[in-house]
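2024-03-11 09:14:02 INFO worker-7 job=invfold-0412 stage=load source=structure_tokens
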């Protein structure tokens, strides 16, 4: 069983590579955005709790997010593994994720971080914005803010996994299939 954190800034190619990894390894995609939409849409207890915080303009607490992740893991007991896409976003979330996984006798095998220079990210996000219909993919100020938030708040998560010898950086610039081959070489070494 593989449990992989696919990590990188906005525009690094996580979505593209996640799709390819899911197909190759039969992993279950675990995206907090998808989980939020599911729980909010179904009106679950976790969804209602998340909505309460969101309606107040507050961040949804880590324990609610972890609860949604755990719910997904419980739903898919026969999974061959999970690919965590865009999560964890903070060191506290990474610690909570490790603790929750240990209760299920699971662990993160590794974090694969896509390394892409900021100027390339900006070009990719703007290009993606032509088809994504995401407002935050089309506005330079929002793009810069997203990259800054990643650098200031999310990048320290890589140090957390590095301290466990679970971080592997991959050059995220180049041909999609070459990047994919570099990633699968890492995963196959687990």
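2024-03-11 09:14:09 INFO worker-7 stage=emit residues=190
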């Amino acid at each position: 069983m593989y449990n992989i954190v696919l990590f990188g800034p906005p525009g690094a190619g996580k979505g593209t590579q996640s799709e390819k990894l899911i197909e190759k390894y039969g992993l279950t995609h675990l995206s907090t955005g998808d989980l939020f939409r599911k729980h909010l849409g179904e009106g679950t207890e976790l969804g209602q709790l998340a909505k309460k915080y969101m309606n107040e303009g507050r961040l949804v607490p880590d324990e609610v997010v972890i609860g949604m992740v755990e719910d997904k893991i419980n739903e898919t007991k026969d999974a061959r593994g999970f690919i965590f896409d865009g999560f964890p976003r903070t060191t506290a979330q990474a610690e909570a994720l490790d603790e929750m996984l240990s209760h299920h006798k699971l662990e993160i095998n590794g974090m694969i971080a896509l390394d892409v220079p900021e100027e390339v990210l900006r070009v990719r996000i703007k290009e993606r914005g032509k088809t994504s219909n995401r407002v935050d993919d089309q506005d330079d100020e929002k793009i810069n803010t997203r990259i800054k938030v990643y650098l200031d708040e999310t990048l320290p998560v890589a140090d957390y996994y590095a301290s466990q010898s679970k971080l592997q950086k991959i050059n995220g610039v180049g041909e999609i299939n070459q990047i994919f081959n570099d990633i699968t070489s890492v995963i196959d070494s687990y």
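2024-03-11 09:14:09 INFO worker-7 stage=report msg="The domain at 2-188 is CATH 3.40.50.300 (Rossmann fold)."
2024-03-11 09:14:10 INFO worker-7 job finished
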